[in-house]
From TrEMBL:
InterPro entries: Acyl_CoA_acyltransferase, GNAT_dom, N-acetyltransferase. Pfam families: Acetyltransf_3 (PF13302). Gene3D superfamilies: 3.40.630.30. Signal peptide: none annotated. It comes from Kribbella qitaiheensis. One of its GO terms (molecular function) is acyltransferase activity, transferring groups other than amino-acyl groups. Residues 19-176 form the N-acetyltransferase domain. Keywords: Transferase. This is GNAT family N-acetyltransferase.
Length: 176
């Protein structure tokens, strides 16, 4: 699955003057790698911590994700300093639907970073990219992500019980 064509980066800056969502840079990789080892990140995300091999190939994999139409991985940065404070990613199911996932680095949690980034990326995806629907999935125990989904206009559409008994809450937001 995925898109049938490459994804074009946003034509304008995705910013609300507090955060900016932008393409990943080599200078972001140290912060991304460090955050990938954070216990809270490991609790909620399925990605393994970034090791040295993954770090070396990271930007090439990111470029291929954009080129292949599979995903749009970006960095959330502080608008004032351009320092990375999190990551956000669209994973395309097809030309009309994508899932959105994000992680805020430990030092920036609780500051409203995630809802700001999700709003910016959602506006771009449902507008400029022309998607009809975004899906956001959160573990039922991840109250912070559930609040982000609700705050950003996603509606709960169902639940999925995972192997092992955990429940994933599924939210969707549509264009228009």
């Amino acid at each position: 699955m995925g898109r049938t064509s490459p994804i074009k980066p946003p034509s304008r800056s995705l910013t609300d003057d507090v955060v900016v969502v932008r393409l990943r840079l080599e200078s972001d990789l140290e912060a991304i790698a460090a955050a990938s080892h954070d216990p809270q990140s490991l609790r909620w995300l399925t990605d393994p911590p970034m090791d040295e091999a993954a770090r070396r190939t990271s930007l090439a994999r990111v470029a291929e994700a954009w080129r292949s139409g599979q995903a749009a991985p970006m960095v959330i940065a502080a608008a004032a300093t351009d320092e990375p404070v999190g990551i956000v990613n669209l994973q395309f199911r097809d030309d009309e639907v994508a899932t959105i996932a994000y992680s805020v680095f430990p030092a920036s949690r609780g500051q409203g970073v995630a809802p700001r980034a999700v709003q910016l990326v959602s506006g771009w995806a449902l507008g400029e990219l022309g998607l009809s629907q975004l899906i956001l999935e959160a573990d039922e125990g991840n109250a912070a992500s559930i609040r982000v989904a609700e705050k950003c206009g996603f509606e709960r559409t169902g639940d999925r019980v995972e192997e092992g008994g955990e429940t994933t809450v599924i939210f969707a937001r549509t264009a228009g």
